[in-house]
Design brief:
Blueprint lengths: L6 E6 L2 E6 L7 E3 L2 H15 L2 E5 L5 E6 L10
Parallel strand pairs: 1-4
Antiparallel strand pairs: 1-2, 2-3, 4-5
Length: 75
């Protein structure tokens, strides 16, 4: 099975898009960032991947992990 890709919430032509890592096209477009975040969070949670939320400037402003986070302490 192929590894699921992280989800990104990014600005797209005056809207907010949800993209999988490496994709050039958004899987969905939303009128607000909050709507896009809800959709992307649901996808990331169901696939056990990362969620990256970008600001209007395109820079990552928040990150959430819904899978095996390598930074988590073991034990």
């Amino acid at each position: 099975m192929a590894k699921s890709k992280a989800q990104h919430v990014v600005p797209r032509s005056g809207k907010w898009g949800v993209l999988s890592s490496g994709a050039s096209r958004a899987s969905s477009l939303h009128s607000t960032q909050d709507e896009a975040i809800r959709t992307a969070r649901e996808i990331a949670r169901s696939h056990g991947t990362e969620l990256y939320i970008h600001g209007k400037d395109g820079r990552i402003r928040e990150r959430s992990s819904f899978g095996n986070d390598p930074a988590q302490p073991k034990g």
